[in-house]
Design a protein that fits this description.
The protein is of the alpha/beta class. The protein has one domain: 3-Layer(aba) Sandwich (Rossmann fold), CATH 3.40.50.150. Helices cover about 35% and strands about 25% of the residues. It has 9 helices and 14 strands. The protein has a 9-stranded mixed β-sheet, with helices on both faces. A 3-stranded antiparallel β-sheet has the order 8-9-12. The protein has a two-stranded antiparallel ribbon with strand order 10-11. A hairpin with a 5-residue loop joins strand 13 and strand 14. Helix 2 runs antiparallel to helix 8. The radius of gyration is 20 Å and the shape is globular. About 40% of the residues are buried.
C-alpha cells in the first residue's frame, strides 16, 4: 500500500502494484485460448473507452444512466432519511456525478461524515476527493485506488451507519454464480441493524429496447466494443485489425441478459507479442466482450437472499426500466 495524497480531510491510497499490471495479460491468455473466446469488460475502460462510455450515456437509446439518475433525484432524501447513513462507500465511483445527489441528501440531513470512493483510476479518485471536500464542508474522503473485486478488504471500518453503493447496473456483468459470491463479499461490509446496500439493476423489458441500448444508430457502442482490441494492441503488442471485427449485441431470452460480441469478418491470425502467442479466428467467429444481466423482482430478491441480505425497498423510475434496491443484512 502506497499513500498517494494525504491532507486533513483527504486520504487516497493505491493498492494496485506490479502484479496488477499482469491482469490484462492473464485475462487475454485465459480468455482467447478458450474454445469460446471472451474478454472481461473491465478492459474497455482506458481513457478512450471512458470517453466513449460517457458519450454512450448521452445517447437517446441508452436509458439506464438517465433512469438511475431520475430515481436518485426523486428519492435520495428518502434514502437518507431511511438509512441515517453517515458514510457512503461507492464501488466504481468514477466522477461521482450521480452520487452527488445522495451525498447532498445525506449532507442536508446532517448525517454525512465520510465518502469512500473505490476506482482503478488514481487521478479520478484524487480529483473527485479534492472537489467533494470543497463542496461539502466537514466531509472526509478516504479514497481507494484499486479493483473492487479484489481490494474490498481495504475499505476502512465505519464508526457511523454506512451505505455501500454499487450503481449503474454493473452487477449485471457478473455471471449468476459469481454475482452471488460477490454479493456475499459486499454483505461482509455491512453490520446488521446499521448498514445498507444500495444496488443498481437494469430490469427485464422489451428486447427491442434492450438491444437498441447496446447497438445505437450512431455506432458509438460499436466503437466502444472494438476499443478493447485497441487496448490489447497497445498494451500487449498485438496486431488485431480492429476494423475487421463487427459489433454484435443481442438479448439472450433464456438467460435474460444482453451479450456483446465482436465477430471476425474474415479468417485471420492475430499475434500477441507480449505473450508470444498466435490466435486463430475463423471467418464469423465471435469473441464475447460483455454480458449484462437484466433483473426481475424474483431474481433480485433471490440473489440478495443468497448473500444473506433482505430487501428493504425497491425504487424504480416512472417507466420502470431500472431499479435501485436497498437491502440490509438479515438480523
Amino acid at each position: 500500500m502506497m499513500p498517494v495524497n494525504q491532507a486533513d480531510q483527504v486520504v487516497v491510497h493505491t493498492y494496485l502494484g506490479p502484479s496488477d499490471e499482469r491482469s490484462l495479460a492473464d485475462d487475454v491468455l485465459d480468455g482467447l485460448t478458450k474454445p469460446f473466446k471472451e474478454l472481461p469488460p473491465k478492459h474497455f475502460y482506458d481513457a478512450r473507452g471512458a470517453e466513449l462510455f460517457d458519450r454512450i450515456c448521452e445517447l437517446p437509446e441508452y436509458y439506464p444512466t438517465r433512469a438511475e439518475r431520475a430515481i436518485l433525484e426523486e428519492r435520495s432524501a428518502d434514502i437518507a432519511a431511511l438509512t441515517g447513513a453517515g458514510e457512503l462507500v461507492e464501488l466504481g465511483s468514477g466522477t461521482a456525478a450521480k452520487t452527488r445527489l445522495l451525498l447532498s441528501a445525506l449532507y442536508d440531513g446532517g448525517t454525512l461524515r465520510r465518502y469512500v470512493p473505490i476506482d482503478v483510476t488514481e487521478r479520478m479518485v484524487r480529483d473527485c476527493a479534492e472537489a467533494l471536500v470543497g463542496e461539502y464542508p466537514g466531509l472526509a474522503v478516504h479514497g481507494i485506488v484499486g479493483d473492487f473485486e479484489r481490494h474490498l478488504a481495504h475499505v476502512p471500518p465505519p464508526d457511523v451507519p454506512r451505505i455501500v453503493a454499487f450503481l449503474g447496473g454493473t452487477i449485471g456483468n457478473f455471471t449468476p454464480g459469481s454475482r452471488r459470491r460477490f454479493l456475499r463479499r459486499l454483505a461482509k461490509l455491512l453490520r446488521p441493524g446499521q448498514d445498507f446496500l444500495l444496488l443498481g439493476t437494469d430490469l427485464v423489458k422489451d428486447p427491442s429496447v434492450l438491444e437498441a441500448a447496446y447497438d445505437d444508430r450512431a455506432g458509438v457502442t460499436a466503437d466502444f466494443n472494438r476499443n478493447v482490441l485497441r487496448v490489447v494492441n497497445r498494451e500487449l503488442g498485438a496486431d488485431f485489425d480492429v476494423d475487421a471485427f463487427e459489433h454484435v449485441a443481442f438479448f439472450d431470452h433464456e438467460r435474460e441478459w444482453i451479450e456483446m460480441r465482436l465477430r471476425a469478418q474474415r479468417r485471420m491470425t492475430v499475434r500477441i507479442a507480449a505473450l508470444d502467442l498466435e490466435i486463430e479466428f475463423a471467418a464469423r467467429e465471435e469473441l464475447r466482450t460483455e454480458i449484462s444481466a437484466k433483473f426481475t423482482p424474483e431474481r433480485l430478491s433471490g440473489d440478495l437472499a443468497a448473500a444473506g441480505l433482505e430487501l428493504v425497498d425497491v425504487l424504480t423510475d416512472p417507466d420502470e426500466r431500472f431499479a435501485l434496491s436497498l437491502s440490509a443484512p438479515r438480523q
